[in-house]
Amino acid sequence: MHTVVLGTSGTTTADVIAVARGNARIEISGEALSALAAARAIVDALAAKPEPVYGVSTGFGALASRHISPELRAQLQRNIVRSHAAGMGPHVEREVVRALMFLRLKTVCSGHTGVRPEVAQTMADVLNAGITPVVHEYGSLGCSGDLAPLSHCALTLMGEGDAEGPDGVVKPAGELLAAAGITPVELREKEGLALLNGTDGMLGMLVMAIDDLEMLYKSADVTAALSLEALLGTDKVLAPELHAIRPHPGQGAAAANMLKVLEGSELTGHHQDDAPRVQDAYSVRCAPQVAGAGRDTLAYARVVAERELASAVDNPVVLADGRVESNGNFHGAPVAYVLDFLAIAAADLGSIAERRTDRLLDKNRSHGLPAFLADDAGVDSGLMIAQYTQAALVSEMKRLAVPASVDSIPSSAMQEDHVSMGWSAARKLRTSVGNLARIVAVELYASTRAIELREGLTAAPASRAVIEAVRKAGVEGPGPDRFLAPDLAAADAFVRGGGVVAAVETVTGALA
C-alpha cells in the first residue's frame, strides 16, 4: 500500500488523492514530530503565565474576553469540540472526510499549531485504521475554518460521537477506537481549537474536483471531436496557427486534443457537400475556446490549491520566534472564489456539450442523420429523452453556478461578521462535477451512435477506438428503442472511470 509521509512543509495534491481515495497510509516524519514538540513547549510556557492568551487560556470567538483558570482548561477544550460538533443533514462522503482529516493533520504537522505529537499520531492512527468520523452536510460557514465538520472529526479522536468503521458500518467512535487499539486523546490547552480551525474541508473538495475536472475536460475534448465528426464538420478551425494568434494556453491544448482525435477521419470536411455550410455552428466551431477557458480556470484553481497545501491555517498560530499570534488566515475566501469559478466553468462546458447533442438529434441540423438517431423515427423515439435528461442536468448546473462566496451571514454575536461560505461552494461544485460527467456521457452516447450511422465513411482511428471501448463497456449501438437508463449509466461509469481518455490515448498518445 502507498505511504504518505507528512513533514513540516505541507503536502501535494497527489498525496491528498492517495489518502482520500486510495486509502494510503500516513506516517509522520521525525522532522514534524520535533516541530510539534517545539511548538508545544511554547504553548505550555504561555499557559503557565498569568497573562491571557487567546485559545490557550481564554474562551473562544465572542467569549474570548473570559480568562480560563488552569483547572478548567481541559474541560474548555472538550467543550469546544462537543459544542461545535453541531452539524445537521446527510452524512458527507467518506473521501471528503478522509481529505478533511488528512489536511488538518498536515497543518498540525507544520509545527505552528501547538498540538502535542501524540495527538497528531492519533489522527494518523485513526486514518490508517480506516475509521471515518460521521460528518454532516450543514454546519460550516467557511470562516474560522470548517468548524462543525472538523469538530465531528475531533470528537472521534476523543472517543465520542459516531464514526464509520472500515467495513462501512456506523458505530460509536469509542467502540471503533478500542477495536483498533487506539487510545482516545485527552485534549489540553489550545488543542481543541487547533483541531477545528482550518479550511480543510473546502480545500479537500477543491483538490478532488480539480482531479475530476482535469479528466472530464479531456473527455469533453474527445466528445466534441466525435460530434464534429458525426456532423461532417471541418477540422480546419482546429489548425494550430489559428489558436496561436489568440494564445490562451487552454484553448491551444483543447484544439490540439481535438485535432489528434480527428486525425485520419473520412468524415470531416464534408460541410460543403449535400447541405453546404460556410462555417460550423458555434457549439462545434468554438469548442476549443469554451473548453480552453475552463482549462485555464482549472490551472488557476490548482495554483490556489497548491498554495493552500503549503499553508498552516490556524488561529492563533505559533511562530518560530516563540510568539502566539491571532490572525485571519482561516478565512476561506481564496478557496471559495475558485470553487465558485470552477462551478461556472463546468456549467458552461456542460451547456455547450448539450447543444452539440441536440444538434446531432435534430434532423434539420444534423446533415443527413435520422431524427433523434432513431432506428425507425416515429415508431422509435431514439435518444429524444436522453437529451431531456442532459438538458435537466445542464439547467441544474446553471443554478449551481450561482456563487456561494458572495454570501455572508454574521455569526458569533457579530465577532465573526464576514464569512466565506466556502464549504457551501465546495458542496455545490461536487454536485456540478457529477452532473458534468453525466452530460459528457450523453454526448458520448449520441456522438458514437451518430458516427456508426454514417455509412460509407470511416471514422478516425481514435474515434473507432472510443467506439469499440464504449461498446465493450456495455453501451449498445444503433438499433430499435430499448430501455435507455442502463446504457446511460454504463456510459456515465465509462466516462467517470477515465475510459474515454484511456481509449483515445491508445491511438493518439497522451492528451494535453
From TrEMBL:
Cross-linked sites for 5-imidazolinone (Ala-Gly): C143-G145
Cellular compartments per GO CC: cytoplasm
Record-listed E.C. numbers: 4.3.1.3
Modifications after synthesis and translation: Contains an active site 4-methylidene-imidazol-5-one (MIO), which is formed autocatalytically by cyclization and dehydration of residues Cys-Ser-Gly.
2,3-didehydroalanine (Ser): residues carrying this PTM: S144
Pfam short name (any one): Lyase_aromatic
Any one GO biological process: protein homotetramerization
Keywords, alphabetical: Cytoplasm, Histidine metabolism, Lyase
Cell compartment(s), UniProt: Cytoplasm
GO molecular function: histidine ammonia-lyase activity; phenylalanine ammonia-lyase activity
Catalytic reactions of this protein: L-histidine = trans-urocanate + NH4(+)
Pathway of action: Amino-acid degradation; L-histidine degradation into L-glutamate; N-formimidoyl-L-glutamate from L-histidine: step 1/3
PANTHER family in UniProt: HISTIDINE AMMONIA-LYASE (PTHR10362)
Annotated family: Belongs to the PAL/histidase family.
Protein name: Histidine ammonia-lyase
Gene that encodes it: hutH
